[in-house]
Amino acid sequence: MKKLMMKYYVTIFLLLMFFISEKIFSQENHNVFPGLAWETSNPEQSGWSENKLTEAKSFFDSLPPASLIVIDKGKVVVDWGSDTMRIKISSMRKSLLSCLYGIHINNKEIDINKTLKVSGIDDVPPLTAEEKQATIKMLLEARSGVYHSYVAGTPAMRIKMPARGSHLPGTFWYYNNWDFNALGGIFEKQTHTKISEAFNKDIASPLHMQDFKEQDMYYLYANTDAPDYEKSVYPAYHFRMSTRDLARFGYLYLCKGNWNGKQKVPAEWIAESTQSYSVTNDGNGYGYLWWVNDFGPDIKCFSAEGALGKYIIVIPGSDLVVVYLNHTEYPDNIKNMSPEDLKKLPTETDAQMNQLLKMLMAAQPFKNKPGK
Predict the structure, then answer these.
(1) Terminus of the chain with fewer CB atoms < 10 Å: N or C?
(2) What is the pLDDT of residues 144-166, one digit of tens each?
(3) Inter-axis angle of helices 50-62 and 350-362, to 10 degrees?
(4) How do beta strands 291-292 and 285-286 pair?
(5) Cα(153)–Cα(142) distance, rounded to whole angstroms?
(6) Contact call for residues 220 and 88 (beta carbons, < 8 A)
(7) In the chain, what percentage of residues exceed pLDDT 70?
(8) Which of 144, 149, 147 is nearest to 133 (CA)?
(9) What does the alpha-carbon distance between residue 132 and residue 187 come to, in Å, rounded to a whole number?
């Protein structure tokens, strides 16, 4: 009798643990993935507030022309503007490269703990012996201490750049385009693969991106007559992409690198690269080429961001991916543009994106339940 009772209790315990684990698994894993096209969900039927979405749409329409897509639990609930238009994403490119690093570190092709010296990395004009002590990881964190001239970047970035030799490698955070461009060169040198080829093979094709083509990624080199502040052997690597393709990339990160049952990016890398290692000038966080909680303490997220209002925002606690692309592209060559002309370019501020995000999140179903 005691043996039967014990067997009964063990069976009940195992069944209970099974249902608990299934519940946890279903909460942590998203089992709706886009095929050749995204599935759409009627916002109102899904419990979203029609009135609040109308308010958000009115605010969106007041901003410069843009495209916006919102993914809720793997389905499109908001799609405003053109989701197929390929637009230069500016500095969002850096988060795409971070993903490629995670894949190829896992393949043992890159060791981010090696110094620039050991990795055979230099520039023209040459790096100092001290600068060569920076590790690849420090470049991913924007903490290299290498304040060398670089290609691309905004005037504000150049004004704020510290003097060469002012900070030891690893001791100071600065949003540094030299770090980011050099990381592109290091990636290609160590993997023997072009960034566009790797992105297409490792990310775009497996995720069935609908619009991306390898020729949508291009390099911006320093011209022979470039001013001293642009002289570098490392080009900027730019992408033009659509909101619906970038939404797949954001959803991959929301799903911790797992795409429909296949681990495309190590979950450990996603967790490591999207946590903060530095406090930025705005008091927010920065990981490995990802911004962390950049929209205030009320929105726990990580984001890829580019000039003039380009965003991928992943909000794990709300199962949301938000992609916003201002249709205006930041010019490749700004040396002939006046500061006044640059200021006239249509843009969207972080404060406006913050407001739009809060309006979208206020329209979510759980925000509209009694007692919430």
Answers:
(1) N
(2) 999 999 999 888 888 899 999 99
(3) 160
(4) antiparallel
(5) 14
(6) no
(7) 90
(8) 144
(9) 17
HSE value, Cβ hemisphere, 13 Å, CA-based, for 296: 9
Of the listed ranges 27-36, 71-80, 235-244, 249-258, the one predicted with least confidence: 27-36
Q: Kindly list the structural domains of the chain, giving each domain's residue range(s) and its CATH number in brackets, ordered by start.
A: 50-367 (3.40.710.10)
Q: Phi and psi at residue 179, in whole multiples of 5°? A: -55, -50
Q: Which one-letter amino acid corresponds to residue 13?
A: F
Spatial neighbors of 43 by CB under 8 A, at least 6 apart, are 50, 53, 77, 78, 363
| Helices 93-106 and 177-191: angle between axes, nearest 10 degrees | 40
At 80, list the tokens: 């405003």
Q: Cα separations (Å) of 139 from 35, 299, 320?
A: 36, 27, 29
Distances (CA, A) of 296 to 194, 293, 318, 321: 36, 6, 15, 17
Q: What is the pLDDT of residue 353?
A: 94
Q: Kind of pairing, strands 285-286 and 278-279?
A: antiparallel
Tokens of 230: 């642009």
pTM, entire model? 0.89
